[in-house]
Amino acid sequence: MSAGRVTLIPGDGIGPEITTAVCGILTAAGVELEWDEQLAGVAGLEETGTPLPDATVESLRQTGLALKGPLTTPVGTGFRSVNVALRREFDLYANVRPAKSLIPGSRFENVDIVLVRENTEGLYIGFEALIPVGGDPKAVAQSNAVVTRRGCERIARFAFEYAVKHGRKKVTICHKANILKAVSGLFLETAWDVAREYEGRVEADDVIIDAAAMKLVLDPSQFDVIVTTNMFGDILSDEIAGLVGGLGMAPGANIGDRAALFEAVHGSAPDIAGRGIANPSALLLAACLLLDHLEDTDAAGRIRKALEATLEDGSVLTPDLKGNATTMEFADAVTRRLD
């Protein structure tokens, strides 16, 4: 059984509703975790005056683990993103986004892809400037991508180690080195240096990012593990989520050497907040990633099996899955199927 203290950030909008549902399923599965509930996003701003309270940061510093619901970044606070701030604070350099076909009748029924995205470098580092010309203060906009050999090496090694640990057969390096010869070229070169160390254990290939996007929608079965840079990974991970039913089925993990944060990657959906109809699947799958991280693969496996059985049965589904069940009715249906 799992044991340990975990920071719990219910989040905004539908976050508290799906968090309650997920924690109930975990308890029913016999998972033993001590939750340290903390605020962030709009909830943090309203309660403490900041979207990322010091208490939340300190909690994660102490626990080293967090389960997080969706957050809304408040407008006009100076925060570009609470999620980005947490990644930077704890150097959560590896973003892991698994996508697996779970909904019967989907266009693709054989998707089983893990995308590993570098989480701290590239264009999202935020080195931007507006350059005035001829009296126009916004005549030119400039954004600089920053990629380091160290950053490329550690994300590539993470992807190959992940493949070895989880019995994956192939890692595909996605890049744009034909055009972005410096930043993407360094990533490609470094990733192949790492790939050679795993020769005979994990197959490797590389694909230009636009070709990868096309191949994913034509035949996703040709991909296993994908490793790529920050912005490319952000885009591809949402595309891959679309192959398996959308962001409501998409969990994410942000992992570093000092901490790991597991989350539902969809938004806070304020339009349905408080109505009790949100789909908790993404956060539940994120909780399973947390259990995997804690090496409680038994509980994670039983929960995934119960979720898959509920989706396959199809009689108790939330509205986004073309059903009419409430969040808690869906959670109860999953709970009933736990071994």
Description:
- The strands form two sheets. The protein has a ten-stranded mixed beta sheet, sandwiched between helices. A two-stranded antiparallel ribbon has the order 6-7.
- A hairpin with a 2-residue loop joins strand 6 and strand 7.
- The chain starts with a strand and ends with a helix.
- 47% of the residues are buried.
- The longest helix has 17 residues.
- It is built from eleven helices and twelve strands.
- The chain folds into two domains: 193 residues, Isopropylmalate Dehydrogenase; 137 residues, Isopropylmalate Dehydrogenase.
- With 339 residues, the chain is of the alpha/beta class.
- The model has no long low-confidence stretch (mean pLDDT 95).
- Helix 10 packs across helix 11.
